[in-house]
Design goal:
Radius of gyration: 18 Å
CATH class: Alpha Beta
CATH architecture: 3-Layer(aba) Sandwich
Structural class: alpha/beta
CATH topology: Rossmann fold
Low-confidence stretches: none
Order of helices and strands: HHEHEEHEEEHEEHEHH
Largest sheet: 3 strands, parallel
Helix content: 40-55%
Strand content: 15-25%
Number of strands: 9
Strand order of the largest sheet: 1-2-7
């Protein structure tokens, strides 16, 4: 179960799906002697860490949403199976993935839809919160490289950031979408939402050194690809 805000509304479901679901996968791996696991964690585990960029060796014991807590729990439980049963595990902390086919409840998709319809867009906070948006093609490249690393190496348990290492503010994100669409955004300013972090910012040096990860898509290029996809879907 993905999403910070919905996890606050239904934390038990998130616990059952994300934690017990992962436990079931690990038990099946043990039963069938499957050794390699590459799994999505999340940048949300960093909470509101003051130091940036976020590094994998930081203490992440202060989650601010049930979703983030389940992802941290997944990292811990997979380490147990790595130690007990020799499983090779790569936990990938994704940073705000976007691109064609993005979920409709996420900001870029939602804002594109509302702006295209000439409607107001909700801006939570003053627009200075920022996210390290990472284009889907770059994330997929990182996943493939992680799978290859798991298969080629022994005694693997690694937590790795997959981000773009270039945070974009909420205001800037709105302006880039508006410019790409050729519209003037109508903004409804609202209070910050519970569970939302102030910023995400990935240190990707480990991913670069370990698996050769190198994000190639700028935010402007990624938004253009998303808008092109969105408009083709809604002709």
């Amino acid at each position: 179960m993905a999403g910070v805000r919905p996890s606050i509304e239904n934390p038990v479901l998130y616990q059952e799906v994300n934690c017990m679901g992962t436990q079931n996968i690990l038990e099946e791996m043990k039963l069938h002697q499957v050794q390699n696991l590459v799994m999505a964690s999340s940048s949300s585990v960093y909470g509101n860490c003051k130091e940036v960029p976020f590094r994998e060796d930081m203490v992440v014991d202060f989650a601010i949403s049930p979703y983030a807590a389940t992802k941290k729990a997944n990292e811990v439980m997979t380490h147990v199976y790595h130690k007990l049963f020799g499983m090779h595990v790569m936990m990938l902390r994704f940073f705000t993935v976007y691109g064609p086919k993005q979920r409709p409840d996420l900001a870029i998709n939602k804002f594109t839809r509302l702006m295209s319809q000439g409607k107001e867009i909700p801006m939570f906070g003053d627009g200075t919160t920022s996210r390290d948006y990472t284009f889907i093609d770059d994330i997929v490249d990182g996943i493939i490289k992680s799978c290859e690393y798991c298969q080629k190496n022994e005694n693997v348990y690694e937590i790795v950031n997959l981000g773009n290492s270039s945070p974009i503010s909420l205001k800037e994100m709105i302006q880039v979408i508006a410019k790409t669409l050729g519209v003037e955004p109508k903004i409804q300013q609202l209070p910050m939402q519970p569970g939302d972090v102030e910023r995400t910012y990935a240190d990707i040096s480990k991913a670069k050194n370990m698996i050769g990860y190198e994000p190639k898509t700028t935010f402007e290029e990624g938004i253009k690809q998303f808008v092109d996809w969105y408009q083709n879907q809604n002709k």
